[in-house]
Amino acid sequence: MMIMLRRSLFLLIACVIVQQAAERTAVVNATGLTTPNHVSIDGDGCETVECRKQVAAARRGTAGYHELDAALADGFAQASPCVRNPTLGTMGFHFAKASRIDQTVDAAEPEVLLYLPDDEGVMELVAVEYVVPNIGNPVPSLFGESFHFNAARNRYELHAWIWRHNPAGMFEDWNPKLNCPGF
To answer: Which pLDDT score is estimated for 44?
Structure first.
């Protein structure tokens, strides 16, 4: 009887440990994508079904770019050093695909991918940015959000933190919890 009780207790403890490890490494979101646990899966500023569908499309469209080499092989090129504002936060390293910069807005095909290195220095995909040149067109929107006008670059831009949680909001430019290397 005592051996049976010990085995049951051991199995219960083992199940709890395995469950906790699984919760720390990944969750499966409503779209069926396995998402790292530091990514918000509840919308995080995305309050409509349409917005959630567009975020899911963005994640599906960029899931293959978690490794920077895949993005580079697909034509993305580094467009900036690590972008940081000491009071607002960080954006990261921008990698753009010039052939996508046009008047088309497609959630699954962002023009820019944003990366930051992890603790080992490996670049991680953290966010995406949509870019539409201003040629007198109406302000574009996606995810129920209007793009911001960047006068210095004469274009409309919208960031989406779809791979790393941004406490300021999923569609804010800057993430106050992240930092460029060396800061």
So the answer is: 64
